[in-house]
Amino acid sequence: MSFGDSKAIVTNQDGLNEHLDDVVKKHLSHEFLKPISTHTMDAFAQVHEKVINFSGNIILDSCCGVGQSTRILARRYPDALVIGVDKSLHRIQRNVQDANEPDNFVLVRADLNDFYRLVVDNHWQVAQHFLLYPNPWPKAKHLQRRWHGSSVFPYILKISNSLILRSNWLLYLQEFQRAAELAGKTGTIGQVDDVEPLTPFEAKYRASGQSCWQLKFEPYTNHI
Ligand SMILES: C[S@@+](CC[C@H](N)C(=O)[O-])C[C@H]1O[C@@H](n2cnc3c(N)ncnc32)[C@H](O)[C@@H]1O
Q1: Which listed CATH number (3.10.620.30, 3.40.50.150, 3.40.47.10, 3.30.70.360) goes with 35-217?
Q2: Which of 208, 65, 209 is nearest to 133 (CA)?
Q3: pLDDT tens profile 88-106
Q4: Cβ(213)–Cβ(8) under 8 Å?
Q5: Is 67 in the pocket of ligand 1 (CB under 6 A)?
Q6: How many angstroms does the Cα of residue 69 sit away from the middle of ligand 1?
Q7: Each residue of 30-67: pLDDT tens digit?
């Protein structure tokens, strides 16, 4: 598939997943006990050191892929420390540096199912959390692979009061919005209208004529 030829999401759901409420309520009322992997614990320890020695705002860019958004956010917020996290070493090591490379970001290879719990347990104050174009898992049976259907969802809500989640699948955002509502949080959905695409996936979807959507939990401008 070439750039500009990205397929629209195909799903066998015709609305919110029928098990959404039950799954989310279960996760909201049960502790997530799965042990944390050693590799994520080690990766977290290294970045934790930077965070506790940093006095400015912390921005978390989850599922950062090649780190394009991490670099753009670092340039946009030069006084912040922007932490991009992705489980794929191949992606975060892809050489996408540009002439204008900022120095206020780090890319970390870690599994967010574990990393999120470490962030919450270590009381990071995250000014803004970005979760841009997570894998959609559009088959109904894969609800629990979507972030709002996962066991770590309650932790995602605790990372920051300011979350921006983007997807080319509106239903993903509507489900996340509903899941957050079950936890007492209200988010608003709108269309992405940035001039500069924030990520390679955003650029690809746009070039294919697809709409990109954003779910926003505020406050998000007050911190920065
Ligand atoms: C569709 S890509 C989007 C990448 C980037 N945000 C963009 O828009 O170009 C989803 C990314 O999520 C990452 N990912 C999926 N599950 C993850 C997990 N449990 N922990 C960390 N990263 C994960 C994948 O490695 C992949 O890079």
Answers
A1: 3.40.50.150
A2: 65
A3: 999 998 877 677 889 999 9
A4: no
A5: no
A6: 12
A7: 999 999 999 999 999 999 999 999 999 999 999 999 99
* DSSP for 145-189, written as a single string: GSGGGSTTHHHHHHH-S-EEEEES-HHHHHHHHHHHHHTT---EE
Residue in 217, 223, 24, 32 with CA at minimum distance from that of residue 120: 32
Whether the model pTM is above 0.85:
yes
The token pair at 142 is: 């894969």
Q: Which residues contact 53 (CB under 8 A, 6 or more apart)?
A: none
Rounded distance from Cα 161 to ligand 1 centre (Å):
21
Beta strands in the chain (DSSP E): 58-62, 81-86, 105-109, 126-132, 163-167, 188-191, 213-217
